[in-house]
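Example 3.2
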Amino acid sequence: MSTQTIARPKRVRKSPEERRREILDAAVRLISERGYNGISVQDVADAVGVTKQGVLRYIGSKDNMLSMVYLEHYNVGGNVDDFKDSGLPGSTADDLRLPAYLRYLVRYNSRRRMLVQLFSVLQVETFNPDHPLHEEFADRQNSIWRYYSGFDWRIPPAFSSLDEVRPTVRKALEVMDGIQLRWLREPAIDLNGEWAEFEPMLFPSPLWDGYR
């Protein structure tokens, strides 16, 4: 009497980079839904289908996972260099415009809803001094300005230096954060359309005419 061997499907082994990306993608989704304090490493492991130790092998610790999520997911795109590569009006080296860049950033964020939700959750959670990203978020306005200051923006002649534009940029980023929160709620609004209505208030005529 012959026996028939049942072939079992081979387990697909993922590369370390694929597995690491899968873990971080799951972390982004879970943190955006529940907050950093509302999840555990085990939750991420369950979402990916590996053991807790398997996750820790790639991320080191829960706090390190959060830093990786924020720095490697949220902060990797939509920067000024990306804008300069876009070919959009106001993106060339001899005509680099701050309002045009912020408009580009809003459009970029409108295509990554889950990451914007992640960022919004972290903004609130990091008020806690014990949060692993507390210092990162506490210094966010300063670090953004230091970054922006490294570019040669074309600004209206009424400003004697780029430093005089800093209060306007601060307000623009505060408005952007607020609009994004409203965009994440139901009923949803048009993020780009909402920004288009605020932009003339932040960069009014005639001061900013020809510099937007």
